[in-house]
């Protein structure tokens, strides 16, 4: 019956993981893919795959948080999504997210256009840079978590984020000049 | 505020976390529940003769509790609760729990 108790504990832990990170996975999927329909598919597939490999992941995590592992599953599935269907990310995210996202009043008044420009700029970045920014700003992940999710060193991740911001800054600057 | 800080502020405003739509939570939880129910359905495929060998008990017992996930497969949990109350040999209790769970699953599918 020890095996049964282990399975019960495992299922409880997975339920906790699901509840804690559904929003993270969905946010990542949406900003990565660019439309709600496919983001929902990707989110569902991520949790299905996570469920299948949860016992092993938990065993190997040595108590470390599993969010980077979960986001890495979503990252791999998103890569397959583009490879299998020969798709590219949409250049513009569906307006629904920008308009329904809980921006504060100040942002609504002065920044909606800027926010749209930033989102468009992010969507045009190379995949790895775009992903790093999504993880940092939409999910609030630190360098170590992002490094684990992208299978890179912390140093390389720091450089990646720095370059992503610089490239975005440059792109937005060029658009302002036009 | 420097240009870099301003851009980071804009990135935080642009990349806000998004709440998943209710239809998605329903869908994911339903799918996970179906997975756990599928584990319960495995019970119906068990060969009663094979259940006389204690080495085969772990699989149905594990399948019987998979259903705790996401509130799914309550039928299996009920089977376990009944199993605990029963007296008699472990083998007979387990066989009865398997039959009950299989019956519950079939009734749910028919209903």
How does this model look, in words?
The complex is a heterodimer of chains A (178) and B (111). In chain A, 82% of the residues lie in helices and 0% in strands. The model of chain A is unreliable at 95-100 (pLDDT under 50). Chain A is elongated. In chain A, helix 1 (2-33) packs antiparallel against helix 2 (36-61), helix 1 (2-33) crosses helix 3 (67-85) and helix 1 (2-33) packs across helix 6 (127-138). Chain A has helices at 2-33, 36-61, 67-85, 95-100, 105-123, 127-138, 143-150, 154-177. Chain A is an all-alpha fold. The radius of gyration of chain B is 23 Å and the shape is elongated. Chain B has helices spanning 3-14, 22-41, 58-66, 74-85, 90-110. Residues 64-90 of chain B have low confidence and may be disordered. With 111 residues, chain B is mostly helical. Chains A and B meet through helix 1, helix 2, helix 5, helix 6 and helix 8 of A and helix 1, helix 2 and helix 3 of B.
Helix-strand layout with pairing:
The complex is a heterodimer of chains A (178) and B (111).
Chain A lengths: L1 H32 L2 H26 L5 H19 L9 H6 L4 H19 L3 H12 L4 H8 L3 H24 L1
Helix pairs in contact in A: 1-2, 1-3, 1-6, 2-3, 3-7, 6-8, 7-8
Chain B lengths: L2 H12 L7 H20 L16 H9 L7 H12 L4 H21 L1
Helix pairs in contact in B: 2-3, 3-4, 4-5
Topology, number of strands of chain B: 0
* Terminal-residue CA separation of chain B: 64 Å
The structural class of chain A is mainly alpha
Q: N-to-C SSE series of chain B?
A: HHHHH
| SSE string of chain A | HHHHHHHH
Overall radius of gyration of chain A: 18 Å
* Uncertain parts of chain A: 95-100
Determine the number of helices of chain A (DSSP H or I, runs of at least 4 residues). 8
Enumerate how many helices of chain B there are, as a single number: 5
Can you summarize the main beta sheet of chain A? Answer: none
How large is the share of residues in beta strands of chain A? Answer: under 5%
The main pleated sheet of chain B reads as: none
Most extensive chain interface and residues per partner? A-B, 48 and 34 residues
Structural class of chain B: mainly alpha
**Tally of extended strands of chain A?**
0
